[in-house]
Amino acid sequence: MLAYLGVCLVLIGLNLRTVFSSFAAVLPEVTADAGLPAWAVMVLTTVPVTLLGVFAPLAPGLARRFGAERVLLGAMAVLTAGLLLRPVELPGVGHLPAMLAGTAACGAAISLCNVLLPGVVKRDFPHRLGLMGGLYTTAICASAALGAGFTFPVFRATGQWTAALWFWAVPAGVVLLLFLRPALRARPGGQPRTGAGVNVWRSAMAWQVTLFMVLQAMMSFSVFAWLAPILRERGVDGGTAGLIVSASIVLQMLGSLFAPALATRFRDQRAINTVVALMTGGGFALSIFGPTEFLWLWTGLLGLGQGSLTAAALTLIMVRTRDGHTASHLSGMMQGVGYGLGSSGTLLVGQLHQATGSFAAAGVLFLLVGSLAAVFGYRAGRARFVGG
C-alpha cells in the first residue's frame, strides 16, 4: 500500500504545472481568438501563482482536520473541474469569465497539493527522502514539460485551442480516480495540534528558506508563463518554441531528479543552492540576450538550473525540519509567502514588456534575482534545523 501511495503522490505532481505551461504554449492563439485584453493576459498568467500563496497557509489546518490524503483528493477534484471550466465559452460574455474562474480554481487546488506533498513524503518515507523528493519534484517538472510540449501539437491537430486546453483535464481526472482508494482508507483526521510545535514564523532559518523560495518562484513561474512568448518574439515558430521549452523542461526533470539525492547526501546545501541559482538567472538572461543560433544551449542551461533550483528549494522543507508536523508548517509558510510574492515575477515581466516593447528589461531583472537567490540559498543551505 505504501508503494501505491508513493506512485499516486508522483502522479499528483505530474498534474501540478500543466495549467501554466499549456496556456503559455497557445497564448498568441488564445489572445487573438478570444479577444483577450492586455490586462486579462497579465491576470491569467499571474493570478494562479498568486493563489498558490493565498491558499498555502490553509493547507496544514485542513490536513489536521480532514487528513492530508483527503485534502489532496479534494484538491485534485477541484483541479479537474477547473481544467474543464477554463476553455468554456459562455453565451453573450465569451471565454474570459470561465477562463478566469477555471484558472483561479486550478491555482487554489495546486496550492494545497504543493504544501501537503512534502509533509506526506516526510511522514511516510523518512528513509527515502532523496528518492521520493527527487521523484515528485521531477514529476512536477515533467508536468510543465508535457504542457509545453503537447499543447501546441494538440491545437495543430484539432485546430481548436479549447481542445488543447481541455486535454489536460484527462490526466487529472485519471489521477483523481486512482487516488480514491488511499485517500478514503486514510484516517479522516491528521496529526493533532501540539503545544510543543515549532513556530516557523519566528525562525530565522525558516525565513531564509522562505526568501530563497520567493526568488526561486519569481524565476520559475516567469519561465512557465513567458519563455514560449520570448522565443516566439525572437522569431521562433510556435511548434519549435514548444519543442525548445519542452526540451528545457526535460533538463529540468534531470536536475530535479538528481538535486534532492545530492542535497540529502550532505548536511550542508550551500554550494548546490548557490550554483543552481546562478545557472537559472544566467540562463534566463541568455535566452533573451544570447545569439539565437544558441537558443537550445541557453534554454538548456536554464532548464537544468531551474529544475535543480526548484528541487533544492523544496528539499529544504525536509532537511531543515525534524518531523512531518514542522515540515507541513514550514511548507505552508515558504510556499504561501514564496508563491504569493513570487507571482510578482510574472507580473513584472508582463509590465516591463508592455512598457518597453521587449523582454530586455526582464533579462536584467532576472540577472539580479538569480544573484539574490544565490545569496539566500547560501544562507538557507547551512546545516541547521528550523527551531534550533
From TrEMBL:
Keywords: Membrane, Transmembrane, Transmembrane helix. The chain crosses the membrane at residues 34-59, 71-88, 94-117, 129-152, 164-184, 205-228, 240-259, 271-289, 295-319, 331-352, 358-378. The keyword Cytoplasm does not apply. It comes from the Bacteria. It holds the Pfam family MFS_1. The keyword Electron transport does not apply. This is MFS transporter. It comes from Arthrobacter humicola.
